[in-house]
Design a protein that fits this description.
By secondary structure, this protein is mostly helical. The chain has eleven helices and no strands. It is globular.
Length: about 260
């Protein structure tokens, strides 16, 4: 019965991802925790789940040439070392999962709140007028800031499994306003896959925080459900779904941040 339950959980999250377009980390990890899985197992397993489920998106965007690999490499320059160092320190400084659980819960809460904020404000800003748009501080220093934000994502995605999608997209929109929307999505996915893979492997190698049976069941349930959810999402107004989802994530974020 546990297998069936895991598969159904994966299907539910996969459907939600397809309908809303929101990444799995912000949905999968809280659901696994609420269903009784330990924080460290939920986060470690979800990181590898995210890497596997998003890999197809990289190939699709690469085929359409909608990935800016220069920007993706700058993000990875900060995020990949940060992810490895974060998981290594968790295992070698804190040791047992009970000693660093409070770090995971607080980080998860913070990242869920940030993700909710991104969803609330997504699409509310007007399109910039490039003819009159002078480069801001962010654009003038986009290269070092991209590496710095990659470092931030590397640490907090490793600690929470949340943020590689929604927050990564928000960062790209701020630093590269001239980048086409499809390029923002493609570049973000191209960075999210290696980040979640390295962070997940760090949880596996340094911490042993991956449940492969759970991972397999989640994939069996979610992969077909994402496709079905995508079809349904095309018929449902996105401006209604996102505020509802953002509110749920905000409430969950506050709950976990205060644990």
């Amino acid at each position: 019965m546990d297998f069936v339950f895991y598969i159904l959980a994966g299907a539910a999250v996969g459907f939600a991802i397809g309908v809303t377009g929101v990444g799995g980390g912000s949905l999968m990890t809280p659901i696994l925790i609420l269903f009784g899985f330990p924080f460290h197992i939920a986060i470690g397993t979800d990181l590898l789940y995210a890497a596997i489920t998003k890999t197809g998106g990289v190939f699709a965007h690469q085929k359409r040439r909608t990935i800016n690999w220069r920007i993706a490499r700058l993000l990875a320059l900060g995020s990949i070392p940060a992810a490895l160092l974060t998981t290594y320190l968790l295992g070698n400084v804190f040791g047992d999962a009970s000693n660093y659980e409070h770090i995971l819960t607080t980080s998860l809460g913070i990242m869920l709140i940030l993700t909710a904020a991104v969803l609330f404000f997504n699409g509310k800003s007007k399109e910039p007028n490039f003819d009159s748009l002078a480069p801001s501080f962010l654009q003038r220093n986009s290269m070092p800031l991209t590496v710095l934000m990659g470092l931030f994502l590397g640490v907090f995605v490793s600690l929470s499994s949340v943020g590689a999608g929604a927050i990564g997209t928000a960062v790209l929109l701020m630093l590269y306003p001239r980048l086409p929307a499809i390029g923002v999505v493609g570049t973000d996915i191209a960075h999210a896959v290696p980040l979640t893979l390295i962070a997940g492997l760090g949880h596996l190698i340094f911490l042993g925080n991956v449940d492969f049976v759970l991972l397999a069941c989640l994939l069996v349930g979610s992969l077909p459900a994402v496709k079905f959810g995508t079809r349904v999402g095309a018929k449902v107004p996105n401006h209604l779904l996102r505020p509802i989802l953002a509110t749920i994530l905000l409430l969950l974020g506050v709950k976990f941040a205060l644990i």
